[in-house]
Specification:
15 helices; two-stranded antiparallel ribbon; eight-stranded parallel beta barrel; 12 strands; alpha/beta; single chain
Length: 406
């Protein structure tokens, strides 16, 4: 595990992430794996439909990045979903392939038929779900779970028990369910699922320690982003010992989406020091592919993937953007396959004008001309309420040189 906050020319994050007083408070596992659910949970984004070919393209790109596990779908949903899993399982990817299953033998059989390595076995445990949606008790959940878990493991599948809406479970229900499962049908791992994205990082850390104490099992964390805490709560789970984080590329998923794959990768690698080996430079390629196939644009300022992440309009520090970017950014743009860019607008300074003149090969302006050009740039940025195009800047430069108004 890396113990430094910077690598020359690549990234420079806060050194306080790595001081002993901080690190000694964490219970970081030696290794963390990513289980990506884009092909199942991501497709549950309203209006998103991935074809078999789409799913193959996405899975292949995730494998190039180095994602450890790919949840290729739920075969019970449709014949097309089952076909996609079969095709992906047959690609020979390094990523291990999982399916999503209800607690029934038929779903386990479908996972086997599709060639999966493992299965996520879902059951409800959140109290609102039990009382209002299903009319069950924890005993009903256990009765439906026991034989399915044992059958999946007997068939050689890696079985992850997934009592969803975990963060809204009554303590006695979760305690009783875990005790019964461990006595009669211990799975390979157990998930803590913040289905409604409503737990704080502190609550998640508490639950990871609690469930690990009750079961002794590897813990997997799966969160949604309803309060904007999806990535934060998953990383908090890691600091309490969770070994697997669940994600969706581009933060896709129901409602506000799931914890974003690309943000988790950078957080694990650069903020917590895991030498993951993931191809960070491939993340924008996956992001663009998902945006195209899901027909959901990536916000300009979205972490990791946004087109505006390495754009500088303000004139302060403009000289560092291209030549010493770690002065202005926590990561070098090239780390994630990007380049820095200087743009002109309301917030620009004279140094921005000088830089743009040189970048566009427009020669030099006198100090008075540069001052006049800057005034026109600012006025145009205010009028347009956006940044200027190169063509607009060239027109301003021509006007300043000829003394014409723009």
């Amino acid at each position: 595990m890396r113990e430094t906050h910077f690598e020359d020319g690549k990234w420079w994050v806060s050194p306080y992430n790595f001081v002993p007083d901080v690190r000694n408070e964490l219970s970081l596992p030696p290794k963390v794996e990513i289980h990506d659910a884009t092909l199942r949970d991501g497709e549950q984004t309203p209006g998103v439909v991935f074809s078999v070919d789409d799913k193959v393209r996405i899975a292949t790109k995730m494998d190039e990045i180095g994602v450890d596990r790919i949840e290729a779908g739920m075969p019970a949903v449709s014949p097309q979903d089952a076909e996609a899993i079969r095709v992906i399982s047959g690609l020979g990817l390094k990523s291990r392939i999982f399916t999503f299953a209800r607690a029934m033998a038929a779903d386990i059989d479908m996972a086997l038929e599709c060639g999966a390595h493992g299965v996520i076995i879902e059951v409800p445990i959140g109290y609102p779900k039990l009382v209002k949606q299903f009319g069950w008790t924890w005993k009903d959940v256990f009765a439906k779970s026991r034989d399915t878990i044992n059958y999946a493991r007997d068939q050689g599948l890696y079985a992850v028990y997934f009592p969803y809406d975990t963060t809204r479970a009554r303590p006695e229900d979760l305690t009783n369910l875990c005790a019964a499962i461990m006595a009669e049908s211990p799975p390979d791992a157990i998930g803590i699922v913040d289905t409604m994205g409503c737990a704080t990082p502190e609550a998640i850390k508490y639950m990871v320690r609690w469930v690990k104490d009750m079961t002794g099992l590897p813990i997997e964390i799966h969160t949604h982003n309803d309060f904007g805490m999806g990535v934060a709560t998953e990383l908090a789970a890691v600091t309490a010992g969770a070994e697997v984080v669940h994600s969706c590329g581009n933060g896709l998923g129901e409602r506000t989406g799931n914890a974003a794959l690309e943000e988790l990768i950078l957080g694990l690698d650069l903020l917590y020091g895991y030498e993951t080996g993931y191809r960070l430079d491939k993340l924008p390629e996956l992001g663009e592919l998902l945006s195209e196939l899901a027909n959901i644009p990536i916000a300009r300022n979205k972490p990791v993937l946004g087109d505006g992440n390495f754009i500088r309009e303000s004139g302060i520090g403009i000289q560092y953007v291209m030549h010493d970017p770690l002065v202005m950014f926590g990561t070098h743009p090239a780390l994630t396959g990007r380049t820095g860019e200087v743009v002109l607008g309301k917030k620009s300074g004279k140094a921005s004008v000088t830089y743009k003149m040189d970048a566009l090969g427009l020669g030099e302006l006198s100090d008075a001309q540069a001052t006049a050009a800057l005034a026109k740039v600012k006025a145009r940025g205010i009028e347009k309420r956006d940044i200027l195009s190169d063509a607009e800047f060239r027109a301003i430069v021509d006007a300043v040189r000829t003394g014409d108004a723009v």
